[in-house]
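Structural prep section.
Before we set up the soaks we want a predicted structure of the protein with 2-oxoglutaric acid in place, mainly to decide which crystallisation condition to try first. Input record follows.
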Amino acid sequence: MLDKARENLRLACEQLKIHPDVFEELKSPRETLAVTLLIRMDNGSRRAFKAWRCRYNDRRGPTKGGVRFHPNVSLDEIETLAFWMTFKCAVANLPFGGGKGGVCVNSKELSPTELERLSRAYIEAFSSFIGPDRDIMAPDMYTNGIVIAWMADEYAAITGEPLPMAITGKPIAFGGTVGRTDATARGGYIALRHLEASLNLDPAKATVAIQGFGNVGYHCAKLLHADGYRIVAVSDSRGAIYDPDGLDPLAVMEHKLHNGGILGAKGHGETREISNAELLELDCDVLVPAALERQITLANSDRIKARIILEMANGPITPEADAALTAAGHIIVPDILANSGGVTVSHLEWVQNRSGFYWDNSRVRDHLKTTMSTETQAVWALHNDMDISMREAAYVHGLRRIADSVEARGTQAYFSGT
Ligand SMILES: NC(=O)C1=CN([C@@H]2O[C@H](COP(=O)(O)OP(=O)(O)OC[C@H]3O[C@@H](n4cnc5c(N)ncnc54)[C@H](O)[C@@H]3O)[C@@H](O)[C@H]2O)C=CC1
Ligand SMILES: O=C(O)CCC(=O)C(=O)O
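Run finished without errors. Recording the tokens verbatim:
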């Protein structure tokens, strides 16, 4: 994945005539630490888990990004996610570079005590790699509030700091900010609402299918549903449910909490089970991938019918499928813009921790709305002015900001006097 991201970056640098020093710097991660975490299991045995943390680029500020627990986590995935974070933070105009971390684990197979030992061991291993002015962690897939709380508690114990500013997404009672839980979804929702007129979208008529019903997928469904959008399908790792008359996200969540998954939840009409693959191919107005990367590839891109794809997951569409979908006229609101609301509010948590002054919900939401609307408008304008896809426009937008911060420190041209 990183090779492909790097190649697209090279083309963008050439097209925008960005100084070669910038590509030379951005083509590789600044540093990645790989460790093996040895965990004592409840039955007394020991198990080893591979774990990584990558600081991709820190020209715009300390590196920032979540940590995920998933069986598919690999070095390539973490470095690619950290590359995307570098651009996402620049698109959102945050004073951060990009980072990411993860553990190769199926956390559903661990007991709560094993999960706690794993979360604390992760921090122990990376405590000198992270830091409030160096690398700041946050939640991602399968690292919910309790995992973040264990991590923050461990970091506080190791450093002797009562308030661990190197970790955001903390519970409010532990220095977290109001508004972080639904920030990622809210950011995507604000971006979509901002584009409604330009995209000729009418919430009263539009239908939406959402892949993934975790933090991001659920809150997206809730916000869009409250605005009148008809949520016709949602999914989790076990499968999907489809109801052409619409689903109530609150009722589906209620079902999930009692039954461990969404399958079996009922909507307003005849609800039926479909596969995750079928969900992606539904005839709807907006498709919201909110689970894993590489869900839409050349193998299924020609069967995607949604006119608009709001990428809430990181990297749900492969570069080849992206080109095919764009050529076929689909509008893709890219991940580095659409899901930047989470890190935007994480930044506010970091700011509040540093100042010791805590904001109320309306101030957090106003800030998020201003940031998302401003940057969505900037990306939309570049998309139209340069006649490029929204993804290319978002990369141009972020790259210009990153290039400015690299060049501001002096390039080869500066030293040669040219
Ligand atoms: N949580 C955050 O603040 C941010 C999350 N993201 C991205 O959003 C995506 C989702 O993250 P979260 O909602 O936080 O994770 P989560 O762990 O809360 O939820 C993940 C959801 O995806 C479902 N899922 C897993 N495998 C699936 C599959 N093969 N098909 C369909 N559904 C599947 C799970 O059942 C669960 O419902 C990830 O790509 C993550 O990187 C991006 C920016 C910030
Ligand atoms: O809130 C954060 O700092 C991290 C969010 C993240 O990992 C992401 O946007 O993919």
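Observations: The domain at 183-338 is CATH 3.40.50.720 (Rossmann fold).
Flagged for discussion at group meeting.
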